[in-house]
Amino acid sequence: MTIxxxxxxxxxxxxxxxxxxxxxxxxxxxxxxATCKGRACLVACPARCYRLxxxxxxxxxAGCLECGTCRVLCSDGGVTRWTYPRASxxxxxxxx
Amino acid sequence: xxxxxxxxxxxxxxPAGSACAYTLAKEGRSVLLLERGNSAGAKNVSGxxxxxxxxxxxxxxxxxxxxxxxxxxxxxxxxxxxxxxxTVDYFDPSFGADVPQSYSVIRADLDEWFAGEAEAQGxxxxxxxxxxxxIEEGGRIVGIRTGDDEMRADVVVAAxxxxxxxxxKAGLFPDxxxxxxxxxxxxxxxxxxxxxxxxxxxxxxxxxxxxxxGCTEGISGGGFxxxxxxxxxxxxxxxxxxxxxxxxxxQDIFQDFKMHPAIQALIDGGTSIEYGAxxxxxxxxxxxxxxxxxxxxxxxxxxxxxxxxxxxxxxxMDLAIxxxxxxxxxxxxxxxxxxxxxxxxxxxxxxLLIANQKAYQNFHGIFDIPRxxxxxxxxxxxxxxxxxxVDGKTPKPMLKGLLETVKRNVSFxxxxxxxxxxxxxx
Lengths: 96, 426
Hints:
- The structure holds 2 protein chains of 2 kinds.
- Chain A is of the alpha+beta class.
- Chain A has one domain: Alpha-Beta Plaits (2-Layer Sandwich).
- Chain A has 4 helices and 6 strands.
- In chain A, a hairpin with a 2-residue loop joins strand 3 and strand 4.
- Chain A is globular.
- By secondary structure, chain B is of the alpha/beta class.
- Chain B has 3 domains: 5-69 and 105-173 and 289-351, FAD/NAD(P)-binding domain; 179-281, 2-Layer Sandwich (D-Amino Acid Oxidase, Chain A, domain 2), CATH 3.30.9; 365-425, no CATH class.
- Helix content of chain B is 34%, strand content 27%.
- Chain B contains 14 helices and 19 strands.
- In chain B, the strands form 4 sheets. In chain B, strands 1, 2, 7, 8, 9, 10, 16 and 17 form an 8-stranded mixed beta sheet that branches. In chain B, strands 5-4-12-13-14-11-15 form a 7-stranded mixed beta sheet. A two-stranded antiparallel ribbon of chain B has the order 3-6.
- In chain B, strand 12 (206-213) and strand 13 (221-227) form a beta hairpin.
- Chain B starts with a strand and ends with a helix.
- Chains A and B meet through helix 1, helix 3, helix 4 and strand 6 of A and strand 11, strand 14, helix 6, helix 7 and strand 15 of B.
């Protein structure tokens, strides 16, 4: 294989995740996000967990890298709860 | 286990936590080291360079047992523009001849090793445990909660990383501010050992560390590239606020950097094997909370926001280790838990952690000069192009050509103002 530009999906596919199905470790209130002007999460979340769908901010916790960028950037309180995944869930880095 | 009371519970088996647990166990204290990852290092990402003096402080010779990647003998600073790059390359194979100054590291290996060393000294190491909360009684911290379990100790050491939820729960500091951290993204790219040695002009166990400016589309931040044994760590750290204000996703800017011809030449033929992200304490001494302890709790490492970034030197893990050692010494010296806080203060002074932080305390102000991240790298490359280009036409007089190059990129007024700002922050 050789080096190529990787899509967001390609990048996350490199990592090992154990998703805690039905039990998100981060909660996002879309009603608050709807009125947020900044929406920095859309461009600054390294895992692209935050995306714009039909004009709404949608959040998917499955590929979260647990970095905390959304926690520190969220200006309007749309991130209503930020914790780490329960033990044994989430991302596991092997060579970072 | 919940009935036992430990001398100390250390939360987080990163470099700070393991240094603390190692030292406590060696001094005969009962210590429980908790880690939320399935193994130590599984949740950790760093650029990838450890300054070795810190392990020497914990125990002379300890670094020789550590799973280190390559001894860094080449320090490189790269200024990029769209077309090319100008790289300053400082080669010094005698760097830290007795105890090598620094090594590239992979955290999954390093952290697991260090936690194992703590265990060998007698610490109880428990990975796969997420601490949910602190137990507070009579105004002091007396233990931790994980799920339905409670575990008690004279002192809890919060080594829970840059997001330190425990430090916040204890009321030591408010939620992290976006201006105080950087967001780092990184790809690990596999390449054969000999290819890496040849491309970077180093021997088998030696390596290069590179920082890159001009790869962030003007956002405050910079790239990094470290040579591991058989992989490269390539990434960018961004100021998250500035990144959040512009249109392009930071992943796309990072991929542009990766595909830049000057970077391509170094990683060509490699295989991307992991993608990681992490926050980095970014403003040095001014980011360190005033309050680093309360009765029954001390905060160490990234959780205490220890970090130094001079643009060319980026330090975190070494400071983490020193702070973990300081906390351990404080706990050992304390006659009662109430004394630990003051002794910890004293130790981080004595171990020169504070002196190191203070030496660069105003440095981060330099990164407020926006032109450092676009105009000046452009200027450097334009000047090089002017100096080296030969096309047979009548060359411009040297001085005129250079002045025009400067003017094309930045006004003389701005240049003077930025020079003054640089001078003031050094």
